[in-house]
Amino acid sequence: MTRMLRVFAMAALTMGAGWGIAQAGPAVRQGDYVAHDFHFRSGESLAEMKLHYRTLGAPHRDAQGRVDNAVLIMHGTGGTGAQFLAPYFAGVLFGPGQLLDASKYYIVLPDDIGHGGSAKPSDGMHAHFPHYDYDDMVAAEHLQMTDGLHVDHLRLILGTSMGCMHSWVWGETYPGFSDALMPLACLPVQIAGRNRMMRKMAMEGITGDPAWKGGDYTTQPPGLRIALEMLLIMGSSPLQMQEHEPTRDEADAYLENFLNSHFATTDANDFLYAFNSSRNYDPSAKLETITVPVMAVNSGDDFINPPELNIMPAMIKRVPRGKYVLLPITEQTRGHGTHTMAAIWQGYLAELLQESAR
Fold it and tell me: From 75, 151, 178, 270, which residue has the greatest number of CB atoms within 10 Å?
């Protein structure tokens, strides 16, 4: 296993273009959509908000003129749409004859608000950037799809981690807009317990550092290292860490390399805003309103969403056409990062596509 893939496995939340992930498969087009006079739930607004995206394939319209082959794939906290171009995702799903063959499907990979090439605090507004949340991000995704790319219907919504949570929000906010939902690595309840505590500790690692200066720093505050340490633990897989760093010296070297590389490429305000955007996520009250097929998948070694919480088995019963799969821990799983190892769960995607076919 390459060092890059090992980094991905241990801190999957931060996957993105900055990690040097190689593009795989068919041609990728990039573009920007500018949302004008975008209003946030906080009461703040932006006169112009850039939303970056990548696409593969081309849209197809049915006899009624509706797009019938669009697939929206949403990344996790700190990531970008570029992460889905990695061989272990695009190379498994987007190639000829594969489940999401880009010659048949129109695949859209957005960079969410606060991430990648989209508008974010580090572009210049710093801590004066609007305090976005998941509802804002989904509203922007919908606007980008409809007004920007003229997609009036989705064949599939698939999301990982934060994108997984966005899938639930999509299903409730825009019922019937997609034929199917595949949330990977999340729970459809508010973020509480240890998950909330870890996020709060990561955020306070930044805001508790005097060098943060209320977000108006000129160099990255050292407290960002604390946040990155929390991130590493959140995305970790104990089995993989023990196997690949079996000695004290190897573990120490891995930690130091991780912190140094990520500190050099992470902005504290961007990190803080991205983590804080989950603050009011809670789709649990409206699960019964999601009437399209849903295939929710978690992994047994996910430190963020551990199966012993026993939350998903109860929640999925409230989704009229919902199914839940808990992947067992194997040599192939990667903790929370299993969500992007498509070979492990592609069989369940095939089942979902068949069930939701018109």
Answer: 75
Is 241 a domain residue? Answer: no
Instruction: Supply the pLDDT for residue 25.
Output: 53
Q: β-strands 156-160, 181-184: how paired?
A: parallel
For residue 73, is pLDDT > 80? yes
Does 259 reside within a domain?
no
Non-local CB neighbours of 68 within 8 Å, separated by 6+ positions = 60, 61, 62, 153, 155, 358
The total number of structural domains in the chain stands at 1
- pLDDT of 13 over the 90 cut: no
User: Is 53 within 8 Å of 109 (Cβ atoms)?
Assistant: yes
Q: What is the mean pLDDT of residues 250-266?
A: 96
β-pair partners for 56:
107
- What does the radius of gyration of the chain's CA atoms come to, in whole angstroms? 19
User: In which domain, by residue range, is 105 found?
Assistant: 3-193+276-355
Give the alpha-carbon dihedral of 97, 100, 101, 102, to 10 degrees: -170
Tell me the pTM. 0.92
We report the CATH number of the domain holding residue 117 as: 3.40.50.1820
Look at residue 1 in the predicted model and tell me its pLDDT: 33
Does residue 302 sit within a domain? yes
Give the separation between CA 339 and CA 299, rounded to whole angstroms: 8
